[in-house]
Amino acid sequence: LAKNDPKNWFSEVLTVDDTKAISQEILEQEKSECIQLYGNDSLYRQEYFCDFTVPIVGAYYADQITRAYAEGRVCNVVYDDSLLVDTWWDLGVNDRNAIWFTQTFGNEIRLIDYNADTGKGLDYYIKLVKEKPYIYKSHNAPHDIKVREYTTGKTRIEFASSLGIDFNIVPNIPIHDGINAARSMFRRCWFNKDICKNGIDALKNYRKQYDETRKTFADHPLHDWSSNGAD
Asked: Could you say which residues of the chain have pLDDT below 70?
């Protein structure tokens, strides 16, 4: 790029290793304090090493996401037309409705696609799923798929069936049991880094509620935009 052309400029992100602006002793202290306060060194790595692959502070899946990047499992995972596709839904109207699309090959769970939107009806998402080029094995939704819609007089599962999608209802287990189950499954997961970017961001940001007064994390998730994608 021409240095004299103001239209052609770029900046290089420098880490503390590049600048040598902070002593190793202070860095170790900062890292220790971050771990003590937040349970991991994500904030330390973001602040001093410009590492934005790490999840946000307090994230439930911090270690699992970090390991997935380190092992190269966030990459160019393509759709294999010889394998059937499963969908996994978290339902909402005012909240974000999220759908993961997966294929299973041996012990691998390949997350090939992701969609999330707000303010849309169930018919919108069913149309979206049916327009994908995939051949489906199963569609899976939480227990609130059994809720009756005032507009149709049918339950969501009945309405979906009338539009050509039959849902399995996943077990309604306590939220922390679900989080632990997801953590144990993470090592099998491969993510399409581009198509699933918004879903990966949701997993990075799904975190505990932080009490600013007590300087500690509560024992429940913060409900925000990331909740549906992570659930």
From this structure: 1-13, 16, 27, 33-57, 93-95, 150-151, 209-220
Provide the 3-class DSSP secondary structure of residue 201. Answer: helix
Q: Taking the complete model, does pTM exceed 0.70, yes or no?
A: yes
Which of 81, 217, 90 lies closest to 142 in space, CA to CA?
90
Candidates 100, 102, 99, 98; CA nearest to 85 is 102
In terms of Cβ atoms closer than 10 Å to its own Cβ (0-12, 13-18, 19+), residue 135 is exposed
pLDDT at res. 104: 98
112: enclosing H helix or E strand: strand 108-118
What are the structure tokens assigned to 131, written together?
């327009």
Whether 152 and 159 have beta carbons less than 8 Å apart is answered as yes
Angstrom distance (rounded) from CA 114 to CA 76:
14
Tokens 């969908």 correspond to 87
DSSP 143-199: GGGGPBPTTTSSBHHHHHHHTT-PEEEPP---HHHHHHHHHHHGGGEEEETTTTHHH
The neighbour count for residue 56, using CB atoms within 10 Å, is: 18
